[in-house]
Request: fold
Amino acid sequence: MIWYVALGSAVGGMSRYLIGLRLGHAGFPWATLAINISGSFLLGILLRVPLLPSAMSPEVRAMLTVGLCGGFTTFSTFTAETIRLAQDGVWSKAVGYVAASVLLGLLAGLAGLAIGGQLFGQGTT
Reply:
């Protein structure tokens, strides 16, 4: 099981790095925000995949949820970037970033649950 999680983490981490290079920083941590929102959405969908062994093995589930999504999303980077914005004296950006990350992350997770429920016939609850 641990190797599945390690593989997912490697793919998630490399994806995060490449997206960060592509989107850059440009005065606001857009890449981290996009990564955290899309990771929340993906995790929401994955949580709706039926728990039947024929749908997804426990190893693959761990690889995708704990590994891929865990390696892809960036809470520690989010924290460091928020602190950097605050230290630079741009408190409005720091507060906006925290609010956007939390609110949009929650909304993306809920959207993923709803879409995953529709895809896998489990409703939206």
About this structure: The chain has a mean pLDDT of 90.
